[in-house]
Specification:
The complex is a heterodimer. Chain A is an alpha/beta fold. Chain A has one domain: P-loop containing nucleotide triphosphate hydrolases (Rossmann fold, 3-Layer(aba) Sandwich), CATH 3.40.50. Chain A contains 13 helices and twelve strands. Chain A has an eight-stranded mixed β-sheet with strand order 6-7-8-3-9-10-12-11, with helices on both faces. A four-stranded antiparallel β-sheet of chain A has the order 2-1-4-5, covered by helices on one side. In chain A, helix 8 links the parallel strand 7 and strand 8. In chain A, helix 4 crosses helix 5 and helix 7 packs parallel to helix 8. By secondary structure, chain B is α/β, with parallel strands linked by helices. Chain B has a seven-stranded mixed β-sheet, sandwiched between helices. The longest helix of chain B is centred in the middle third of the chain and has 18 residues. The two termini of chain B are about 30 Å apart. In chain B, about 45% of the residues are buried. Classes of the chains: A alpha/beta, B alpha/beta. Chains A and B meet through helix 8, helix 9, helix 10 and helix 11 of A and helix 6, helix 7, helix 9 and helix 10 of B.
């Protein structure tokens, strides 16, 4: 396994109390594989990724327990200097909002080239040449001329390509993309996702795609981990999950998407709201919103049951859910 | 659905909004214009939902602002029950405004954080004091909270005590306060989580039946627009390029831009993905300060020919379909309009599939 997150726990200390953002997340990605992490805001999907990258703000954040094994090494045991060598060179991140992730007062060529100067000790001139190559690789038209331009001179789609170029600069083994196309229009979204999938194939990197969009997931992922209230509630190969979800939350999400063949009917809506992370319900965190909840769900937290060799579900009644 | 005899409740024709671009500080000189909306026509019937889809910068939000008179159009008219509201001012405008209300996109910034929910929903009554007598207003606000599915006891809470979905319900209650006939909703669910989106869409659906509302529903999410709309208009760079009943647009699109949009929508079904054709458009939307000549979509269109650069295509039923009545015979602004199946037949409603015969590629 390229990356294995084991029972990770992250909490944030705030004025109002302790918010338990991540409560025992485990997932794994292999080289060349795409894992989609699906969840709504507050489900802990981005916080987990930040912990993996080592860019979590501590304090207020605190990693309570768990292991992050990258190529067999536990990243949480590394010193910050060693961690810095991993970050950027071996794992990289693509952020949602390219405009705020790029430095507005440096040209894109300088920002791309910086990767080679800092990590590879190249001269500025060589780094600039590599930057042009990279911009070509992510298909930015007229790369040689545009290398001197600043981020604001690019459109949203082009900026996201620059983010991708920067993440891939040192050919990392793992890339984490946090909602890479959410800020983009549909037609541009398709261009960027295609580019990302193509580059992933070429470089055989592991990709963690964080998203809330079930449609984007279906298009590119091999496996899905569905998160709710800081836990993975279902983990499965992409085809299985769309065919028959084994957790009522996954089922609810799939059913609440408007479908072309069910027009005019009322949409299925998961009742209620996601839980407050300072006060997660006892038992299964989803029980107050779950149509299948029984007494046991209010008292016993379900473990991640093994549905089959490739699949897990954190629901006491996964069998009933699987059979509809 | 469209009767023809009944006058539409809202009729927009030749709507244009240019924002001037100026140079110089003391002596301002106009050097150009952002052509945000550049000739939009549509009609909204009573009790109908018209969906408007388009990418960012296509002018759909500017259209919404003009409909509720937050922006004055540069040219064109907006007729509400036959009366041109763009020419009104003072008392006459105030009366019309009561009947056309708006639901905003961002429930976090569209509610005043220092006002209680009761004051927010009741504020329209301060501006239109004759709507409800003073003594009954609190009672009416409680009723409105109940109508949108919030606990009437929350009347003294502040916006920050609510979640995004609940805040959007507050925004909807405020829009309903004056019992309007038309509601313009600009991306009302795009800031919400998936599980909450469905709740708000169902609420809007129910309110439409209960209060006999007409909606202009603006969004970029094509599947949500299809779910709620009777008719759909597709905008590109300040103009409507195709408009028709929902199955005409979703099952029988004839404009290449609509086809590209439909093919780009991510479908939550990995098997449908393999069956369908993806049209990936090259490039970005041109700047609205410098709109291409002729057909404004031609710079990204795979069908573009010389004629497209010279001649502006009109929004009308294309000649090829004019003689053959059918779902493809709807307004489409393309010189080379033709049907192209981009969404596989399995995803279509059964009825839609039948009238196309054997489907095609």
């Amino acid at each position: 396994m390229l990356l294995e997150v084991r029972d990770l726990r992250v909490e944030f200390r705030t004025r109002d109390g302790v918010a338990k953002a991540v409560n025992g997340v485990s997932y794994a990605v292999d080289a060349g594989e795409t894992l989609a992490v699906l969840g709504e805001s507050g489900s802990g999907k981005s916080v987990t990724a930040q912990a993996v990258m080592g860019i979590l703000d501590t304090p207020p954040g605190r990693i309570g327990a768990g292991e992050i094994l990258f190529k067999g090494r536990d990243l949480l045991k590394l010193k910050e200097e060693e961690r810095r060598k991993v970050r950027g060179a071996e794992m990289a991140m693509i952020f949602q909002d390219a405009l705020s992730a790029l430095n507005p007062v440096l040209s894109v060529g300088d920002q791309l080239g910086e990767m080679f100067v800092v990590h590879r000790g190249m001269s500025k001139k060589d780094a600039r040449a590599r930057a042009v190559e990279l911009m070509d690789r992510v298909r930015i038209p007229g790369a040689a001329q545009r290398v001197r331009d600043y981020p604001h001179q690019f459109s949203g789609g082009m900026r996201q390509r620059i983010m991708i170029a920067m993440a891939l600069a040192l050919e990392p083994a793992l890339v984490i993309a946090d909602e890479p196309t959410t800020a983009l229009d549909v037609t541009v979204q398709a261009q960027v996702m295609d580019l990302l999938a193509e580059l992933q194939r070429d470089y055989r990197m592991g990709l963690i795609l964080i998203t809330h969009d079930l449609g984007v997931v279906a298009d590119v992922a091999d496996r899905i981990a569905v998160m709710y209230a800081g836990r993975v509630v279902e983990s499965a190969p992409v085809h299985d999950i769309y065919k028959a979800p084994a957790h009522p939350y996954t089922r609810g999400l799939l059913d609440s998407i408007p479908r072309l063949d069910q027009k005019g009917k009322e949409l299925y809506a998961i009742k209620g709201l996601p839980p407050n992370l300072m006060n997660i319900p006892p038992g299964c965190a989803f029980n107050p919103r779950c149509p299948m909840a029984q007494d046991v769900c209010r008292t016993d937290e379900p473990p991640l049951y093994e549905v089959d060799r490739h699949r897990g579900s954190a629901c006491h009644f996964w069998r009933e859910c699987l059979n509809g | 659905m469209v009767d023809g005899v009944v006058e539409p409740i809202l009729e927009v024709s030749g709507l244009v909004k240019y924002y001037p671009l100026t140079q110089g500080i003391l002596i301002k000189k106009q050097i150009g214009a952002v052509k945000a909306v550049d000739g939009v026509d549509f009609a909204l019937d009573k009790g109908e939902t018209l969906g408007i889809v388009g990418e960012s910068g296509c002018g759909k939000s500017t259209v919404a602002k003009m409909l509720v008179n937050l922006e004055r159009p540069t040219a064109g008219s907006i007729r509400y029950k036959g009366e041109d509201i763009t020419k009104l001012s003072g008392r006459a405008l105030k009366t019309v405004r009561r009947n056309i209300q708006m639901v905003f996109q961002d429930p976090y910034t569209s509610l005043n954080p220092r006002m209680t929910v009761g004051d927010i929903i009741g504020e329209p009554y301060e501006i239109h004091p004759d709507a409800v007598p003073k003594g009954d207003r609190r009672k009416r606000v409680r009723e409105l909270l109940d109508v949108v599915g919030l606990n009437p006891e929350y009347i003294n809470r502040y916006p920050h005590q609510f979640s995004g979905g609940q805040r959007q319900r507050i925004g909807i209650a405020r829009a309903l306060a004056l019992r309007p006939e038309v509601i313009v909703a600009d991306e009302p669910v795009s800031a919400l989580d998936v599980s909450v989106q469905a709740q708000v869409i169902n609420l809007l659906d129910r309110l439409q039946n209960d209060f006999d509302l007409s909606y202009v529903f603006i969004a970029h999410d094509l599947s949500i627009v299809r779910h709620i709309s009777d008719r759909v208009g597709v905008m590109y760079l300040g103009r409507i390029v195709e408009i028709g009943k929902d199955e005409e647009i979703y099952g029988h699109a004839t404009h290449p831009y609509t086809q590209a949009l439909l093919s780009a929508v991510p479908v939550p079904d990995p098997e449908a993905r393999a069956r369908r054709e993806r049209i990936i458009l090259s490039g970005d939307v041109p700047s609205p300060t410098n709109i291409p000549s002729g057909c404004r979509f031609r710079t990204r269109c795979w069908k573009a020919e010389e004629r497209c650069a010279l001649e502006v295509p009109l929004l009308a039923v294309p000649a090829v379909f004019r003689l053959a009545p059918g779902p493809a015979a709807h307004d489409s602004a393309c010189h080379f309009a033709e049907e192209k199946r981009v969404v596989p037949p399995e995803e279509q409603a059964p009825g839609v599939l039948d009238d196309l015969g054997n489907g095609g590629a």
